[in-house]
């Protein structure tokens, strides 16, 4: 009979070579979001009125320039001079000095912006995570400092709208600069917009305008007709923003954070 201690040591030794050098998820920098129900802004006969969201983990902070620099250093195909135009437009990482230098005017601790959905997704996959779904992101962002549903608080809604009405600063502060919410997640609202995995579900086309009453309403003054909550102005603004995006788009006020399933 083989020595069981030697077998265990062999397994551990082999595991070291399998996982050595591969990035590991730092769970301590993620927050647990309990299971909940998300109601989409617009629903029709083909859309669920309520979406059950399983509990998940989400990054406490948006991904920073420093973190994305480490990623592109280890993954050259996502460097600004190497990335395919199919996956990122001409503004990709435009403020960086070059492929592996941020430059004097880029804050390493600030959220990385001018980042495409494809690049954000690749980053998340590399670190064993994923992008949060819109339902997950909205569920996490719904919380204010004191409760899981901040939209019952008029002051919280006013604070969000005030941020949406202001232009993005050319020099962003470090992540964690805004108040943490009920789940100890920072900067969900107040620093940069963020990619979601299924942002494209909000897209509508010219041809779709005549396909349903909901789609027609999106293009006229009665855009709130058919909405599940016509008083949720921040949700209308996020819906409009996501509807304007394509996967290779990059802008100076759009970053991302990662999520992870609970197994």
Number of domains: 1
CATH architecture: Alpha-Beta Complex
Question: Which of globular, elongated, flat, extended, rod-shaped describes the shape?
Answer: globular
**What are the low-pLDDT stretches, counting only 5+ consecutive residues below 50?**
6-20, 203-231
What gap, in angstroms, lies between the N and C termini?
35 Å
Q: How big a fraction of the residues is strand?
A: 5-15%
CATH class, named Alpha Beta
Strand segment tally:
7
Radius of gyration: 21 Å
Biggest sheet character? 3 strands, antiparallel
| Strands in their spatial order, largest beta sheet | 1-4-7
SS field, number of helical segments: 7
**How helical, in percent, are the residues?**
25-40%
Output the structural class.
Answer: alpha+beta
H and E order: HEEEEHHHHEHHEE
Mean pLDDT: 78
- In CATH, the topology is named paralog of FGE (formylglycine-generating enzyme)
Structure description:
With 263 residues, this protein is α+β, with helices and mostly antiparallel strands. It has helices at residues 4-19, 65-74, 117-126, 134-141, 154-164, 213-217, 233-243; strands at residues 30-33, 36-38, 51-53, 56-59, 193-194, 254-255, 259-261. The longest helix has 16 residues, at 4-19. The two termini are 35 Å apart.
Properties at a glance:
single chain; 263 residues; alpha+beta; paralog of FGE (formylglycine-generating enzyme); three-stranded antiparallel beta sheet; two-stranded antiparallel ribbon
């Amino acid at each position: 009979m083989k020595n069981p201690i030697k077998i265990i040591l062999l397994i551990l030794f082999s595991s070291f070579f399998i996982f050595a050098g591969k990035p590991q998820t730092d769970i301590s920098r993620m927050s647990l979001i309990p299971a909940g129900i998300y109601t989409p802004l617009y629903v029709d006969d083909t859309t669920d009125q309520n979406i059950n969201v399983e509990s998940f983990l989400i990054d406490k902070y948006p991904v920073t320039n420093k973190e994305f620099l480490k990623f592109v250093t280890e993954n050259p195909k996502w460097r600004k001079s190497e990335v395919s135009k199919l996956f990122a437009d001409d503004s990709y990482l435009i403020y960086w000095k070059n492929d592996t230098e941020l430059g004097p005017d880029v804050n390493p601790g600030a959220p990385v912006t001018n980042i495409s959905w494809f690049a954000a997704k690749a980053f998340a996959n590399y670190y064993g995570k994923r992008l949060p779904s819109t339902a997950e992101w909205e569920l996490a962002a719904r919380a204010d400092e004191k409760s899981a549903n901040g939209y019952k608080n008029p002051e919280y809604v006013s604070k969000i709208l005030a941020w949406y009405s202001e232009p993005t600063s050319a020099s962003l502060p470090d992540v964690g600069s805004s108040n943490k919410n009920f789940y100890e997640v920072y900067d969900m609202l107040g620093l940069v917009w963020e990619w979601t995995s299924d942002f494209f579900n909000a897209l509508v086309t010219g041809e779709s305008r005549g396909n349903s009453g909901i789609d027609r309403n999106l293009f006229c003054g009665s855009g709130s007709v058919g909405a599940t909550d016509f008083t949720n102005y921040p949700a209308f603004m996020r819906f409009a923003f996501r509807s304007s995006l394509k996967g290779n788009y990059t802008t100076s006020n759009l970053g991302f954070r990662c999520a992870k399933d609970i197994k």
